[in-house]
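Lecture 7, part 2: worked example. A protein chain together with copper (II) ion.
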Amino acid sequence: MNRPLIVAALIALPIALAGCDKKPDAPQAEAPKAAASADAMPGMAMPEGSKMGKGTGTVTAIDAAAGKITLDHEAIAAVGWPAMKMGFSAKPDVLTGIAVGDKVDFDLVVTGSAGEVTAISKH
Ligand SMILES: [Cu+2]
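Predicted complex, written out as structure tokens:
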């Protein structure tokens, strides 16, 4: 009589454990992504005058499918920007797992006044 319950528990247990495992894995999952974008850099034609920097901020809007993200970011000395809220372009896969309200660290490439987020990770 109890067998269906035990079977259900045995099925549920690994699922619950898999769920728990996701959080510790998350930071590791970002490492290959960062490495991939770093590897991609030499092959990418970097327009003359582009600057690279690292920023910290809060996501205020995101459209991963369209490759757009708006960040309320702190000052970024490497590109000479004060703190501001602005839109960036980003490859859709860079934005995977990022949501409005997340506090994030990000890498960016600035060309003129346009910024592209090339890597992003939650705090
Ligand atoms: Cu800005």
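The two ends are 48 Å apart (CA to CA). The longest helix spans residues 3-40. Keep this in mind for problem set question 3.
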